[in-house]
Amino acid sequence: MKPNIITKITLCGLLLNGIYTQAQKTNLEVNTTKTITKIQPTMYGVFFEDINFAADGGLYAEMVKNRSFEFETPLMGWTQPNSDTHSFNKQSGIATTIKVLENKTNPNFCRVLINDDKGFEMINEGFRGMGIKKDAQYNLSLKAANPSGSIKKIIIQFIDKNKKVLGETSITPTAKEWQNYTADFTATQTEAKAQLKITFQGTGTIDLDMISLFPEDTWNHRKNGLRKDIVQLLYDMKPGFLRFPGGCIVEGRTLAQRYQWKKTVGDVDKRETLINRWNTEFAHKPAPDYFQTFGLGFYEYFQLSEDIGAAPLPILSCAMACQFNTGELVPLAELDPYVQDALDLIEFANGSITTPWGKVRADMGHPKPFNLKHIGVGNEQWGPQYIERFKVFEKAIKDKYPNMIIVSGAGPFPDGDYFDYGMQELKKLNAEIVDEHYYKNPKWFRDNVTRYDNYDRKGPKVFAGEYAAQSVAIASPDNKNNWECAFSEAAFMTGLERNAEVVYLTSYAPLMAHAEAWQWTPDMIWFNNLEAYGSANYQVQKLFSTNKGTDLLAITKDGKPVIGQNDLFASAVKEGTTKEVIVKIVNTSSKTQAITVDLKGSKLQSKGTVITLTSPNLEDENSFAAPKKISPIESEYLLKNNVAALQLPAYSVTVLKLKMK
């Protein structure tokens, strides 16, 4: 990623500029020596859910759609443009799917009959096309059985919309039985909408399966791994945790369609494909071709957590399907398999290689435990049925793993009957951490900065697990990642930070979306087949996450927290490792504001840093055309006598960083 431009200027000169002489002045005070509470390393994290083509077609770098012919329509994603299906005698060839019933996880394969090796071709469209880059290498693999030996060669090519070849390789299928084959080839030009074309030399029949294509240049250079540019955006945030795999996807529309982690580990080609619960959820953006191959499964999630320095936070089904859909329930007397899944997951993550599930992890290449400390039971279920089931899970987990921290849920809304009931019951149970969700308009976020000021410090801790300001309305396809939403979230986050004694984890949601295959907006990261960028909301999240500090300090105006006076919101922290005082101030007004921050206590070095994130218009957004339109500007700051004088632009988020002597 390109670094932010660092402008070596001081803000002192700005104070002399006449444009600011009429700005209202506010005096703030920070006690740099008195720690209110410690800030959890997990304070700011990321929440991944496979919505908006975030896994297949996104983070998981596989380029072939329906590689193993397991979609509901087995040849979805594949075309046979030269096959005449109306008259067998005129066919150049035909591809059909065969189901092997005894193969429970990957029953389908493709049988190809070639009558004319100059005419038959199969084309895979990719995920809204395939993004290829000039001179980049791509790795192809497939399984083939050539029983009669009549097919001499399989030719694989990148083509554009005009059928121009943009790279080529070939495979010689030598075996009569199933065998794995691999080949590498290089793209000759950059193309966002390439497709994969397969042709054959010889006539006769050949069977194909697991036709797969990955870029060579993946994150950490892992073979068949994750998309490098997207992981880089996550890594740059320095997240404290990674929550996965959702979200409503954990629940499923039905229990049969719930996320089952055991089906997502082990050999990739033996993982059972499942329809994605978001594929037709919204009439405004149906995606009947949205499936989960689970190439990105629980092992890969744990591995990603480790890669980006984040604590893993898996969420498991609590035996309740999505209550917005079927609301299917498993009877209490039949919960054992679901509870066992939770216990086995902890063993998979942390068990020694001599345990059954620890051995599975080790066999996959990670003998060292993943150091799992948190596990979530349910996503956003509500009502007595959830509480009844949560009690069963909690007892079983605590009996076997007493130090495991369990995350519970308080329903899908931040208030109302569901929320009130859930919180009341979870408090009775002495729940450790309660997951709260809020998708509200920007004003709600500014008005609710004090939400946690009066939470019981001895009650459950809070996981602000899903939040995002909605510019139009929840689930509206017209929501935007605009600047008003982003700075309103920043104002709210100062309230989260000020209440670090009770707020332990926070994450924006959803994390990412494909520009041409989304179901839900807004989203923190946007990507297409070639590029990815962070929205204005991403820039806010990153700014807070990379400056979270270790100790909470008080920042006040006239002895009171800065919670909206003069449209200002603020929090202050100390970073013990770097010996820095960090002050975050959000100006939500339409005017520049002059402030002073009196830093009492520690002596501070005169040279510091100020980072400003701002944009003049509420509707401004980052985009593929202007991915850095709203991005932080970092400048040198000169402090005088432990008093910082700042000019806060209208609609801005400012971070002041000062080293202690």
From TrEMBL:
GO terms for molecular function: alpha-L-arabinofuranosidase activity. Keywords: Glycoprotein, Hydrolase, Signal. Its EC number is 3.2.1.55. The keyword Hydrolase applies. Residues 465-652 form the Alpha-L-arabinofuranosidase C-terminal domain. It comes from the Bacteria. One of its GO terms (biological process) is L-arabinose metabolic process. InterPro entries: Alpha-L-AF_C (IPR010720), ASD1_cat (IPR055235), Galactose-bd-like_sf (IPR008979), GH (IPR017853), Glyco_hydro_b (IPR013780), Glycosyl_Hydrolase_51 (IPR051563). It catalyses: Hydrolysis of terminal non-reducing alpha-L-arabinofuranoside residues in alpha-L-arabinosides. It is an enzyme of class 3 (hydrolase). Pfam families: Alpha-L-AF_C (PF06964), ASD1_dom (PF22848). Belongs to the glycosyl hydrolase 51 family. PANTHER family: ALPHA-L-ARABINOFURANOSIDASE 1. This is non-reducing end alpha-L-arabinofuranosidase. The lineage of its organism: Bacteria, Pseudomonadati, Bacteroidota, Flavobacteriia, Flavobacteriales.
